[in-house]
Amino acid sequence: MTMTITERLHRHQLELLILILATASAITGAFELPRGGSAFLGNNHAQAPPHRNSKFSHAPIQLVDDRRRRGKSTQLRCALLPPSVATKISSGLSPQLRYTILFGSAAAALVYKNRNKFYPPNLPTPDASFAEPLPDGSLGCPYLGNIKFFTKIGDPKTGSGAFYRMQSSLSRNPRIFKYAPLGKPSVVIAGMSNVKRVFNREFKLVKTGVISKEFGKLFGGESLLFATDPDRHQFLRRLVGQSMTPEQINVAMPALIASATRQIDTLTVGGNFEMEEVLTRFTLDVAWRQILGLDLKDDEIDTFYGAVNDWIGGILNPVTSLFPKLTKYRKVGKAYTYLISKIDDKLESLEKNGPDGSTMSGMYFAKDEDDPSKRLDRTEIISNTLLLILAGSETAASTLTVAMLALGLHKDALKKLKDEQLAMMSKHQGEDMTRDMLEKDCPYLDAFVKEVMRIKPLATTGAMRFSQETFIVEGKQVPKGYGVAFNPYLTHMLDPALKEEDGSHMDIVKGFKPERWMNDDTKPTEYMPFGVGPRYCLGVNLALAEMKVFLALFARRVDFGMTNTTPENVEWKKISIIPKPKDGALISVLSISDPSTTVVV
Ligand code: HEM
Predict the structure, then answer these.
(1) C-alpha closest to that of 394 among 249, 211, 217, 579
(2) Ligand 1 mean position to 153 CA, how many Å?
(3) Quick check: helix, strand or coil at residue 206?
(4) Residues annotated in the binding site for heme, as ranges?
(5) Transferase: is it a keyword of this entry (predicted)?
(6) Which pLDDT score is estimated for 80?
(7) What DSSP string runs through 359-389?
(8) Which of 84, 100, 413, 579 could form a disulfide bond with 150, CB atoms 3.0-4.6 angstroms apart?
(9) φ/ψ (deg, to 5) at 222
(10) Is a pLDDT exceeding 70 seen at residue 6?
(11) Residue 3: exposed, middle, or buried by beta-carbon count in 10 A (0-12, 13-18, 19+)?
(12) Closest CA to 445 of 565, 546, 301
């Protein structure tokens, strides 16, 4: 089995890491950072002064004490590149790219520091006992991996996930390719039969990685997401899942309706509203009302939203993983403490007052069917509650934001939703909306949500797994130790029954057809918005109910137009987990009816 040059290079990671960091520092050292500087480097002013006496300076990396020359800043400058070249490179780079390189270097350092946690001791290379070749695709530089993983995150035409689409299109087999996020050799797999074959064998063929304890604690270290033992994972899923069964969701319907109504009531005729913001508030509202079952006073609601914001923002901020010990002094730590205090208060109230309809109550009183003496302990309830807030808020808010854009662009779809609601209300006069009604009387709403999630599912990957043994997919080997991930967007995009060469089957203007879901002959089968296998989305019932409740109530009450977006100028945010419209689906409200009245048309 021959090795490519990059595969060989990966064997000499330490030396190469130093070289890469040095080069990155050479470039970043010549950067002009905005006023205020960076969290890592402080005020690092631009343009390393040209080295006077030689074309290259003497030491590979120099800490140039600038204080004498320019006040107090200390500049990290490198002399691997001639200053004129460094300056040229730096001035030709966009600020985004400069930051990408800067943070890329920091992330590479973090991965190197934690290499034994992330990587097996022997870096994976092709398995010589298999004749099959590795999948197509470049592994980029060691430790940094594919630079385009950072620079080609998204594009305005299709949104986030551009890197994966590019790698797939470059591979001779678009359903599998290799790449190296942060230098870790990995593969991405698409196509339902491939994804099922690999991810149905979670815990045996592939397994999620273990994350650093301190960092993991911040978002539920004892949650089922980090359970790598199949029995423990199943135990946690059984107990946490008891609070999200269809029956439990039916109990939750009044809370979901209250949350949706509260947000729709903030809209006013003639106003312009960024629906992404409204919908984020809606999913956070669901979090405190339904998941935590809290009774927040008006003035506390903003504190709760702020805390969730700071907490999620902090988890995504590289400073948190670089310096976990500083967490308690930062906003993220304070937000975490606040959320835990709310969860603790709720646990006390459940102990005192018995069960209510909240998800936390479901967890607190859940007993294992196999062994009723087994219950979730306090830490497990806290961890899994945090996981549900994290997993459920952004995903549902983004999907609903795309739904708003789809409704704004396809007025016929809005009309069909309104008509369906009108029919449902006249059938169930005076009754409150139930989950059963949504299931049985709203086939168009169901088809509409499915189509939104087909066109814009998770465009990045699911959680990274690691292969436990070498296996074959589409005639290519995935060696033991490789990272393994699925990609829902590519799976939907490559559906042979739908695929149009110009990509229009994934276009929200040309390809959006909810009706395709209403006929068995046209129903897509390459479809996995909620994942596959033992880690299939545990919140699927809650997610679908909350999205359908919002859309049903919105369609009943609101008529609107897109403020700026037309079918010709749809643009997407570059960075998001699920692609989102660039303007956050900015709408102008034309009319809005009272919650007690019927549909406005
Ligand atoms: C539109 C909304 C949602 C989408 C698109 C979505 C998507 C997904 C996907 C693709 C996975 C699998 C990840 C993987 O295998 O790597 C997943 C897992 C999960 N989801 Fe969702 N999700 C949504 C809403 C929710 C909600 C509302 C909750 C709960 C409140 C939730 C809780 C979870 C949990 C706990 C897991 C981990 C399951 C496990 O590891 O066993 N999700 N979700």
Answers:
(1) 579
(2) 22
(3) strand
(4) 537
(5) no
(6) 39
(7) HHHHHHH---SS-TT----HHHHHHHHHHHH
(8) 100
(9) -100, 15
(10) no
(11) middle
(12) 546
In degrees to the nearest 10, what's the CA dihedral of 310, 314, 315, 321? -160
Alpha carbon of 539 to ligand 1 centroid (Å): 6
**Nearest 5 degrees, angle CA 167-CA 9-CA 184?**
50
Instruction: Tell me the C-alpha distance between 197 and 190, whole Å.
Output: 11
Q: Does the pLDDT at position 581 exceed 70?
A: yes
Predicted confidence (pLDDT) per residue in 198-245, tens digit: 999 999 999 987 666 667 777 777 889 889 999 999 999 999 999 899
User: Which one of 188, 530, 541, 576 would you pick to mutate in the ligand 1 pocket, going by the greatest count of ligand atoms within 8 A of its CB?
Assistant: 530
pLDDT one-digit tens code per residue, 158-193: 999 999 999 999 999 999 999 998 778 999 999 999
The predicted model scores a pTM of 0.81
Ligand 1 mutation pick, 289, 537, 540, 547, max ligand atoms within 8 A of CB: 537
CB count, 10 Å around CB of 89?
16
Report whether residue 530 contacts ligand 1, using a CB cutoff of 6 Å: yes
Place of tokens 């692609």: 579
Q: Would you give the DSSP letter of residue 12?
A: G
Answer with the residue of higher pLDDT: 19 or 560: 560
* CA-proximal residue: ligand 1, atom 35 (nearest): 538
Query: How many residues appear in the chain?
Result: 601
Is beta strand 558-562 parallel, antiparallel or unpaired with respect to 471-473? unpaired
Q: Residue 438: CB within 6 Å of ligand 1?
A: no
ipTM of the modeled complex: 0.99
Pocket lining: 391 vs ligand 1, CB cutoff 6 Å: yes
Q: Are 511 and 179 in contact (CB under 8 A)?
A: no
Identify the pLDDT of residue 566.
Answer: 97
Calpha distance 119→125 (Å, rounded)? 13
388 in ligand 1 pocket by Cβ < 6 Å? yes
pLDDT at 9 over 60: no
| CA-proximal residue: ligand 1, atom 21 (nearest) | 537
User: Residue 560: which H helix or E strand, with range?
Assistant: strand 558-562
* Ligand 1 mean position, distance from CA 486 (Å): 14
For residue 84, name the pLDDT band (cuts at 50, 70, 90): low
The Å distance, Cα 42 to ligand 1 centre, comes to 38
CA distance 344 to 331: 20
